[in-house]
Amino acid sequence: MSSSRIEMLLGFIRQKPSDPFPRYALALEYKNAGRLEEARTEFDTLLRDHGDYTAGYLHAGNLYLALGLRAEAATIYQRGIDVCIRRADTHARGELEGALAAVA
Prior knowledge:
Distance between the termini: 33 Å
Number of strands: 0
Number of domains: 1
Radius of gyration: 13 Å
CATH class: Mainly Alpha
CATH topology: Serine Threonine Protein Phosphatase 5, Tetratricopeptide repeat
CATH architecture: Alpha Horseshoe
CATH superfamily: Tetratricopeptide repeat domain
Order of helices and strands: HHHHHH
């Protein structure tokens, strides 16, 4: 991960805070670099500010699992399932249900 990519994503977030994708991408960049606490902060912000962004729930839950926080991961997966039901996102819902079943 390059710092220029992080800076670019931070710039996108500043320019268009209503777009959830740059924050999602930043969280993934941090996660993939092993910077798990920074990734956690970004996922928490993403889900707080863009709660209908269904793609964020699976990766946020997976991050919580990587941090050893199984109960919190299950809660995130369930929240994501609830959002998917409301938004009729069957694909993301199926992925989240599978992840939740694996944690249970």
